[in-house]
Each structure stands twice: as C-alpha cells, then as structure tokens.
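We emphasize that the prediction below concerns an isolated chain of 355 residues; any contacts that depend on oligomerization or on bound cofactors are therefore not represented. The input was used exactly as deposited, without trimming of termini.
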Amino acid sequence: MKALMLSGGSGTRLRPITHTAAKQLVPIANKPILFYGLESLAAAGVAEVGVVVGRTKDEVMAAVGDGSAFNLKVVYIDQGEPRGLADTVLISRDFLGDDDFVMYLGDNFLLGGINDVVAAFSGRDSSVNAHILLAKVPDPSRFGVAIMDGKGRVTDLIEKPANPPSDLALVGVYLFDSSIHEAVRAIVPSARGELEITDAIAHLIKEGKTVNASMVDGYWKDLGEPEALLEGNRMALERMTTMILGEVAGSKIEGTVVVEAGASVIDSVIRGPAIVGAGTVVRSSYVGPFSSIGRHCRIEETEVANSIILDSAVVSQIAELEGSIIGRYAHVIKRASRPISNSIVVGDHSRLELI
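Result of the prediction step, given as a token string:
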C-alpha cells in the first residue's frame, strides 16, 4: 500500500506563525506535526509516500529529505496552488498507479496511529472500495461530515455544511482503491473553487461503490488553530519519558522532563511534562507543565507554562507567560517590573516589548 501525505496548505488559521513557516512543520513537543504522520505511516507498514507540496515545498523537502529517516521512500508531487484534496489524487495518478493507498492530511495528529485501519483495509473484502476515519466533534460545520447507515457504511458526505446532518467529522485519513481515480475525474469544483474529496467519495457511493467508516481510535486533533496546537502539544508531552542529556546546574527537575543534549538549565525549575531543546539556555526561570522550548532559545528570569516556544526565540523577564506560542527568532522582553499575565501569539522574526 502507498500513501499520499498532504503538505501543501497555507495554514491561514495559524497566522502569524505560518506567515514564514509551513504549518505542517510547526512543532509539538519539539517535533514537526508532519513527522508524527510520517511515523504513523511507516509503523503501519507503508513503504512509499508521495508528499504533496505547494508554496512551502522547499522547507518541507529540506525537512523530510528522501524519507529514509522515517524508513520510507518519499517522492514529491508539486500541486502549486491549493486546488482541493481531490486534486491531490488527480495529480498523483502516475505515482499511485492502481495500488491501494492512504491519504493523510499533514496537519492531523492521531496518537493511536493507523495500524489497525490499514491492516483491515489491506485484508478487506474486495467489494469495499474506500474506508474513512471519523470522530464526533462539537462543531461539525467546520469539517466534512458523514451520514451513516446502521451497518457502518457511509451513505453521504457533505463538506462544511451550514446545518450539519450529523456530528461525525472526517478525521483526515482516507483509504482508497483505484476506483477513486474515476471519481476525482468526474466531479467539478465546489463553490470554494476546489475539488472536494467529500464530493469524490459521494460520487463513489452514487456509483454503487462501498464506503465504510470507523471511529478514530484514541486522541485526534486537527492542529490548524493555536488552541488546538497547544492541546496537541500537551498530549504529545504526556507520552514522553524523562531524558536528561544536557547540563543541569543548581536546578530542580520535577516530573517527566526532557533536556536535550547541548541544552543548559541553570538556577531554574523545570516541572514536567516539558521539553528543553538542544542549544537552549534556561536561566533563573520556571518552566511549568506542558511547555515545549525549542532549540537554541534563551529563557531568562521568566515563568512559562502550557506554551510552545519555537527555535531561536528569546524570552526575558516575563512573568506568568501561559497558553502562548512564540515564533522562531522572536524576542519577548520586559521593560517594566509590574506583574502582568500574558497570553500571546508572536510571529517569526518579531520583537515584542511588554510594559
């Protein structure tokens, strides 16, 4: 079985972080979101992956390389401008051939992996043409929504309906046989101007094909918004084990904490789950639970919790920084001493002074 990993979206809901970075490469627990998906594909036995890229292709290609770091063989398929999920299948025809494949959205985070669903589809009855993963959500109008019968089969799908007929959202993992290729050629662009994968799957159903579904096993989140990103970060940090490879001097380490090689924690308290990236210096500070500090950062006289600080950022003399995302190379410094509780999202290469 092959796979399509979609990594071409622009990430507008995560701006300003994604003004200068691919949304799929934004890290949780100091690992790009995209890498979790690639690891899931490899664990499920997929060997060949077509990574669909767009405007941020250079950054994605530099990060993923030839796929060997994930025990995968990766080829890149350039979509150019985003034209919908079904379009990614259309442009990937030569790579996919007539093989079964998994389509995986690169900004999705599934803690339970996809081993079981891939194994089930590989060993399925030949009459089953597609399988989709679903999750119950409180806001289904933001997603593609499925309508089911009582036998686990999908009877219809609607993309981002104003009045959702169910609360069953498409998770962003789809499994197809070769019949999907005729379906993506048969549909027309939606009102959004895109070829919707929901329309292609609905076409399969209309043509008498069988589309099955199952509920996602374990935690799932679409990490397209800051709050979701922080939630995914919390879940990823909870799965770590303590590993202290860097320097710790005059400091207290509590709970599950990773201090990567080359990092220094001096006269500080780190209370896990938390991670401090390689080359980072944490001095006279408190790093509280659910915090991910990237590589080559400088954290001084600061209290931070439940936050993501990306590579090469500087945070100095900031009290009670919580629920925040700080972009790469950003400087967050304090000019005055009065205590202020801050919750901020700062874009890459920014400088912010708090008074």
